[in-house]
Write a structure and sequence with these properties.
Structural class: alpha/beta
Distance between the termini: 8 Å
Radius of gyration: 20 Å
Strand order of the largest sheet: 3-4-5-2-1-6-15-14-9-10-13-11-12
CATH architecture of the largest domain: 3-Layer(aba) Sandwich
CATH superfamily of the largest domain: Isopropylmalate Dehydrogenase
Shape: elongated
Helix content: 25-40%
């Protein structure tokens, strides 16, 4: 089952989901269930000029049927729908979270930095990794929403080893990975200690990673400014040590066509690789290219 949570009520998430959903085969549509607020669903479909009819726990859009679970307002619309979906998640399910703003992801008076931060608190583990998928480009981040000055503190050799192993293992469950390229932290991987000696500590862990996956071609550590000289393909995985080291080139190369994938949870969690686009809400103009790619990709994982 693919469980979809509505995201921000004034974002474009529902619009692009509905437009992509009705393009799917009917057999694939049966895999989805949407968790949302009734009023928000009605308003979105009205603004997008899509003919619809609500029938019990379903919404019919043109000739397409989508299962729906309406949720009550408790915290925020994002968190309400997310919590309801999480109650029903099974290990084989996929959680699709539609874009939201960070002020809407709340629990016990705490505001989280995003979905990954929220899920990491809910499922405590050093193995939860923010990752990204695009046509011919697979990326894993060993750290995400932390300051650059704190990376070495948060990425100890042991955490580096465990997160890298987890990234490779989880990607292998959805992709035919053959090549793995691992970036260092510092410019030129520390320049043999001239800039920093920390990369040399991580280099020792790469040997252990190679031992765990003897059938894969594993190369690292590679300076961040040259790692993409290696060809991107659907069977290659690039592992980066920080958020912008990865997402600068990823977004430049792929635009809106990317998937934000959280690995290391009991289930797979995905989202489109863009935000709420508040300025496009209600204008019926949002591009659903990225969502269409996402839906087709996660269906192939089922």
């Amino acid at each position: 089952m693919i469980r979809v949570t509505q995201g921000h009520e004034r974002g474009v998430g529902l619009e692009i989901f509905f437009k992509s959903f009705i393009c799917l085969k009917k057999t694939h549509q049966a895999l989805f269930i949407l968790y949302c607020h009734r009023k928000t669903l009605v308003e979105c479909l009205t603004l997008t000029n899509l003919p619809f009819n609500l029938i019990d726990d379903q919404v019919k859009i043109l000739s397409n049927t989508l299962k729906v679970k309406f949720v009550d307002h408790k915290l925020s619309q994002t968190t309400d729908s997310l919590n309801e979906a999480l109650k029903n998640m099974k290990n084989e399910d996929v959680l699709l979270t539609l874009p939201s703003s960070k002020d809407q992801i709340v629990c016990k008076n705490r505001v989280y930095k995003g979905y990954t931060d929220f899920l990491r608190a809910l499922y405590p583990s050093n193995h939860i990794v923010m990752s990204f998928v695009a046509p011919q480009f697979n990326v894993a981040l060993l750290t995400d929403h932390i300051a650059l000055k704190d990376i070495e503190k948060h990425l100890t050799p042991n955490i580096f080893l465990n997160r890298t192993l987890a990234s490779i293992k989880n990607f292998l469950s959805i992709k035919p990975i053959k090549d793995v390229y691992i970036a260092g932290i510092n410019p030129h991987c520390g320049e043999d200690g001239i800039i920093s000696g920390y990369d040399s500590l991580l280099q020792d862990e790469v040997l252990r990673i190679e031992e765990q996956f003897p059938k894969l071609k594993i190369k690292g550590l590679i300076p961040g400014d040259t790692i993409l000289f290696n060809a991107q393909s659907d069977s290659s995985l690039f592992i980066f040590t920080s958020h912008d080291q990865a997402l600068g080139p990823f977004k430049r190369l792929n635009g809106l066509t990317g998937i934000n994938l959280t690995l290391g949870l009991p289930f797979k969690r995905v989202s489109v690789d863009h935000g709420t686009a508040f300025d496009l809400y209600g204008k019926n103009k949002a591009s659903y290219q990225g969502m269409s790619y996402l839906l087709e990709e996660i269906i192939s994982w089922a």
